[in-house]
Structure formats: structure tokens, C-alpha cells
Amino acid sequence: MKTLVITPAWNEAEAIAATLGEIISANPGVDVLVVDDGSTDATADIAEAAGAIVLRLPFNLGVGGAMRAGYEFARRYDYDQAIQVDADGQHAASDIPLVLSGLADADICLGARFAGKGEYSVHGPRRWAMSLLAAIVSRMAGTKLTDITSGFRAANRKAIAQYCRHYPAEYLGDTVDSLVMAIRSGCSVTQVPVEMLARRAGQASHNPFKSTILLGRTMFALLVALTRRRVSEKDGA
Amino acid sequence: MRGSIFFIVIAVCIILGILLLLRSRRLKEKYAALWVIVGVISIVLAAWPGLLNWAARLVGVQVASNLLFTLAILLLLGVCLHLSLEVSSQEDKIRRLAEEAAIARQKLEQLDDERG
To answer: pTM for this one?
Structure first.
């Protein structure tokens, strides 16, 4: 099994070395790809020194664009499975085999933050909106999903090809929209509970105003995705 | 009469300007067609002002100039939408190129390293 860990990174020089170190030591024999999304700091050089393959995007494309580039790389070099992991150390490197194991019975496996493991939680309207999103997508997928905005997710060959055809480049549209499109194109989805760690550097978006806007955009992305024509195998990207 | 001559001159200037841009290849035909059509319509309307009044009566607009304004606004909306579509598709193509450039660069550096 050829496995690729895809880590999108934008100005993550402070955190990337430690994150990559953990990923590589916890998962020997796995290729780690860092997609440097037009960083202005030394992210790419540090990642290279840490032993990762580095894709240097010539300018900032956003998380969605970076992920697409990563999946394109996975497809081109014929990887059997790919898993995306955040560069800031939020996702536990030791959980990678667990999330990958979910591919045994589905095309996409999400590392879910609210499924009982770890201490990550959100409250209030944000929580309700996320549950609503999760409920809608769960219905579509025909299986219970609790954390559909998770950026910790694994994909097999079929899902990689689907992501290459349709991976939205807009921010946060990316997680929900790509999932909905994958489901509608016939990919099956499952989830495993994972632990959420504190970010190693930088600040999470705890600004309530910003996160509300973000949720609004996610809702909108979901609505649009629901009305979209399903992507068939024949349609080229 | 003086009014229509004024507008005919303006319309002719617009068409000439577009043709000049086309000639110097700063404007592609697919975008020029629309503007040439706009220019021709303005010439026709300026030369035969009665035409506008007739058209206004036909669709039931009381003041003929309002018909003209409405059509102009719709046309400009259409042009804006068309440009937004073009920008979206350009963005998509640029993003794909960026992906390709990054993958190619990685390969190149890898080959360079292997060669020593």
C-alpha cells in the first residue's frame, strides 16, 4: 500500500518541523507531502529539511486549492491512499493509522472530533449549526457522521480521483462541499473518533463574528452543492 | 436633428474605437462582437429616432427614453455577469496551472538532486 500524507501549510514555519517529525516517526514507510501554499516564511525549506516532499505553489490558493494540488500529486504518482493532516499539530500523528484503517470499509474516512474521544468542543449556535450540517450530510451518506467539517480525512483511489475532479478551492466550502460531491458521486463515507490537540502555533478562529460568517458560508456551500448535478466518471476535470 | 447627429458621432466613435482595439489585438473578437452590436444599435436609433418611439409603444412603455435606459441597464448587467463568468473560469485555469507548476517544480528539483 502506497500511502501519502498531505499537509497543506501556509506560513507554518513555527509548527511544521515538530508536526512533520511526529508524523514521520509515528508512520514509517509513509510519504509525507507538504503543500506550501505560497508561504512568505521558510515553511517549505523547513519541511524539506524535515524529510517531506514539498510542493511549492507559486502563490496562495487557499486550503482548498492546496488540497487539490495534493490529491493531484497522489493521483499522478499512483498512491493507493491519501490522508490530509493539518500542519499546526491539531491532528494527532498517532491517529493517522486509525483514520486510514477506516478505508477498509469506505472510500472516505473522517477523523471526527466530537465522537467521544478528546476534549474538543464548541457551544451555542455554532454547535447547533454544525449538528444540523452533520445531520443533513449523514442522511445523504446513509451513515452517522458527527463532524463533517473535519480536515482530518483519508481517501482511497476512488475518492482521490473524485477529489481531483471536484475539489472546491473556496475556503471551508472545501470540507463540506467536497464531501457532499464525493457522496453524490457514489463514494461511501465513514468516520472514526480522533483526539483534537491544541494548535502548536498561531490562533484558532475564536472570533464569534468570523466563525458565524464561516458557518454561513459553509451552509451556503452545502445548499449549492446539494443542487449541483452529480459528477459522473466520464466528466473530465 | 442636431441631437441625432451628436449621437451618431458618438456611436461611430465607439465603433471605431473598438475596431482599433481589435486591430491592435488588445481586444479579442469574442468580446468585441457585443460592443460592435451596441454601437450599431446606437447608430440606428440615433439616425431614426422614430424607431425608439415605435418600439416603446409596442411594449407599452410610456416614455421612450425609459425603454432605452432599461435596455441599457439590462445589457450592462449582462456584460458584468459575462465578465464575472470569465474571471471565474480564468481563476480556475490559473489554479490548475499553479498546481501543475508546483508538481513540475518538485519533480525537477528531485531530478536535480539525483544527478547531484
So the answer is: 0.79
